[in-house]
Specification:
CATH superfamily: ADP-ribosylation/Crystallin J1
CATH topology: ADP-ribosylglycohydrolase fold
Number of strands: 2
CATH class: Mainly Alpha
Oligomer: single chain
Radius of gyration: 17 Å
Largest sheet: 2 strands, antiparallel
Helix content: 55-70%
Strand content: under 5%
Order of helices and strands: HHEEHHHHHHHHHHHHH
Shape: globular
Length: 283
């Protein structure tokens, strides 16, 4: 999920001041962690909490002690994951009240009885990368994606955006070619009937999944390296931090993250957020 965090940090200073070029300094004092990184880390925490709870109770059968991946997920286990997602997003998110949450999500985060609000916002996709990295089968990608997304974004377009992102990450992790990933996305999710150069002059700020996820996927598919993927995503404009976070997660799965970029990005995480990242990274 580090790729999502890097995309968020790099894109943070361009969200309302778009930079439609690939030429810029990646990290500056004007960069910061936003809700994209915080909610991505919260989803990772929810997955780890669920693995720990089910493992200790013996509810599921992990593949092995060092690889706590469940062979099947029962409805009860998926419900626990959803509950843990709500708890983690609220508990962690409330400690960072001014990091750029959308209006409806901010209300959800601070309510005592949170309910999904039929959203198709791109927040569904920007936080989903831990699922793409954790899942071991396509079926698992889809079930876990829905479990952590539907607690807020239960609109079909919101669910589709998160699933498409998680599946692209999963396929990239499996070593699938970009042509294969493109065809899966076109066949099952979005047409991808444009290039980044074609949309760059007119693309505008949009917080919906259907107008952010396809653009982020195309930025990844056209890229030549991890860094180029981030630069391409930023150059599109629009909701720069979220678009780059989605692209960055796929790029990490496909290319890996260069050590120098990794080291710089991690300096932007405070002690609590770094601790969550380190626990995830170690597993």
């Amino acid at each position: 999920m580090l790729g999502a965090i890097i995309g968020d940090i790099v894109g943070s200073r361009f969200e309302f001041h778009n930079h439609r070029s690939k030429s810029f300094e990646l990290f500056t004092p004007g960069c910061n962690v936003t809700d994209d990184s915080i909610m991505t880390l919260a989803v990772a925490q929810a997955i780890m909490d669920t693995v720990a709870a089910l493992g200790s109770r013996g509810v599921s059968s992990p593949a092995g002690p060092a690889d706590a991946t469940f062979v099947t997920w029962s409805d009860a286990e998926l419900l626990l994951l959803s509950q843990n997602a709500v708890r983690a997003m609220q508990r962690i998110g409330r400690q960072y009240p001014d990091c750029g949450y959308g209006g409806h999500f901010a209300v959800w985060m601070f309510t005592d009885q949170p309910r999904p609000y039929h959203s198709f916002g791109n927040g569904a996709a920007m936080r989903i990368s831990p699922v793409g990295f954790f899942a071991r089968t396509e079926a698992e990608v889809k079930r876990l994606s829905q479990a952590v997304t539907a607690v807020t974004h239960d609109h079909p377009e919101g669910l589709k955006g998160s699933e498409a992102t998680a599946l692209a990450i999963f396929l990239a992790r499996q070593g699938r070619s970009k042509d294969e990933i493109r065809q899966r996305i076109i066949t099952e999710y979005y047409p991808l009937d444009f290039t980044i150069d074609q949309i760059r002059p007119t693309y505008h700020f949009n917080e919906t999944c259907q107008e952010t996820v396809p653009q982020a996927i195309e930025a990844f598919l056209e890229s030549e390296s991890f860094e180029d993927a981030i630069r391409t995503a930023i150059s599109v404009g629009g909701d720069s931090d979220t678009l780059a976070a989605i692209t960055g997660a796929m790029a990490e799965a496909y290319y890996g993250v260069p050590d120098a970029i990794r080291s710089q990005a991690l300096t932007f995480l405070d002690e609590q957020l770094r601790a969550i990242f380190d626990r995830w990274d170690q597993r």
